[in-house]
Protein 1
Amino acid sequence: MDGGRSARRRILVAAYRSAVPLAGTVPPSVAYPILDRLADLVRVCTPDARRAVEENLEQVLGGRGRRHPWAVRGVFRHMLRNYYDTFRLPAMSDSEIGDRVILHGRERLRSVLAGGRGAVLVSAHVSSVALAAQALAIAERGGTVVVEPVEPPELLDLMLRVRGSQGLAYKTLGPTLFGDLTATLRRNELVFLVVDRDIGGTGISVELFGRPAHVPTGPALLALRTGAPIVPTYVSRRPDGRLDGVVGLPIELPRTGDRRADLTEITRLVTARLEYHIGRYPEQWTVLQRIWE
């Protein structure tokens, strides 16, 4: 059994290592149609993931998720396109990244950064978050991205090298993470958090699409500790394959003096912004795990 798992790990890591140089040589116009067909196959061959997507979309769209096959199909297709975009990063220049991501609302971020406390940018797993974060960092300010830990460790190392090839710092959950992010904000840099899943299992329950779900409290904790503003950011894929990256309006944060109440309310406000974004682009919400139990 252990030998079989070890072999699968080696095959998986080898496949990812091969995908990085391949993505750098195959243009999106060629890669995307091929990846869409492959994603259709993945959807059929992974019934557990497909059912999770159906159940998530049932809550987002109403009715049974399988009644929205266009959205279920889209989730898997966008997932593979997002991986391709990430693998392609080391081969892309700053100007190429800028051409792929059309940024909107940059003046809002500049206004926020003028306060000198950095900014906590929050988003959901909608479209190619890694590519959009890189474009924003190049255009405006460096920073740190918190990413989900993956297994095996060799694969995590590879993904961190690929994502960090353009200068952004990437961190996974760990005992020093909060201190690292605090230091980033105090340098007046950006912290990127994707907060539609409670990866660490330490979140709180708030309403998401009319039903309680556990979501992370990281943005609220950082804002309360450092005074940094929380800025929703939205990413979506255009019909031509490029991305729209939108910097939203900063969230007005309550300061009642009741830390627990403020933490809950800030988390609720963040979740409401995510709900808006996911609801606009459900077919691009690439979460393959159940959000609601």
Protein 2
Amino acid sequence: MRKPAGGGTPTAYRWNILLLLASSQAIAYIDRVNFAVVGPQLIKVYDYTPAQVGVLLSTFNWAFTFSLLAAGPLTDRIRPRRSYPLGVGTWSAATALCSLTRAFAPLSAFLVLLGVGESLMIPSGSRVIRETFDKKHRAFAVGTFFAGNKVGLTVGIPLGSVLLARWGWEWVFYVTGSLGALWILWWLAVYRPADPIPAVPDESQRTMTWAALLKYPTTWGVMLGQAGYLYIYYVFATWLPGYLVLQRGMSVLTTGVVGMLPFLVGTLCVILGGWAGDRLIAAGRRVTYVRKGFAVGGLFGATVFTIAGAYTADAVLAIAFLTLSVASLSFSTAAVNSMPIDVAPPHIVSSLVSLQNFGGNVGGSFAPLVTGMLISASGDFTIPLVVAAAVALVFGCGSYGLIVGSLDRELGKR
């Protein structure tokens, strides 16, 4: 591991960085899941259709997706010290603004702003990981970073449900929108830029640009693979509360408790997957085999368990299968999100991370909309869940297994 700039104890600093990374994801997903919690209320009380709620959820996702194309190069240019708090401050303000209206058009605008702000988080966090952790410790750091989004869903669903049931719509956004300000103060107090990344000795790497990344099959592999990964993940993240209320007839408060269980289990599996990957690499296993094995295995398990849950009539057993699906998907998280950090030349790490997540979110952005439309057309969640499983299998397993190349050397390295 690299020693941080600015003095202090390296171990303590790294733990602070891990906590900052995880908590930024947690806050982001608390702010995202607000709308998944409020969505059934819009349908049952305010005469929205499932398709309209799907459009609102996809509005955020499309804004987030296209903003990623600029977020990576911006982060590589201004560095995480400025890009990270800029993103957190923007999306937190957008969350608070959602308390002002229930009308479709202004909510759409605030969700666009939410997406723009959140687009800076993953490129910024990935660059911080590249600065702070070497390859033998990287998957655990990536796993901890992305475990934060499971924590956000675990906390956000019951928190939003309680705030909605006790105090109403506005307080869901008042409370969660304030969390980002606390994070920014913590970040400014803790983060110190690492030593400058050494000059790249290989001329072909040193001159590599954002656009040049697109000529490598591995770039397309991580983009398409992430599309499969995020499609099925976004189905759970945006529609699980709706599934519990609309398909299983649960109350808002019961949904808050049951809905957090898959993501609580998923949090543990993300960290476990990262830890196990690091142990294998430290023991001498090739990075390529470890990353691909965890990615394909986790996504295949998610496919099988989602199909089982879709066709199970018993509510308890169905929820157990869907929980296992989230767990299996989570086991692949550290591996799939370490791939671009492993292979990108140091000066454009955030750019490749952005491309991966742009491709992923092109797929993921369709998930809320397609799911809502399929629910409206079919009357239940069976077909939407089967579609999610198929996307994970074809795009996720297929791309990470067959298109991604060697992860043991950087792109463009001779």
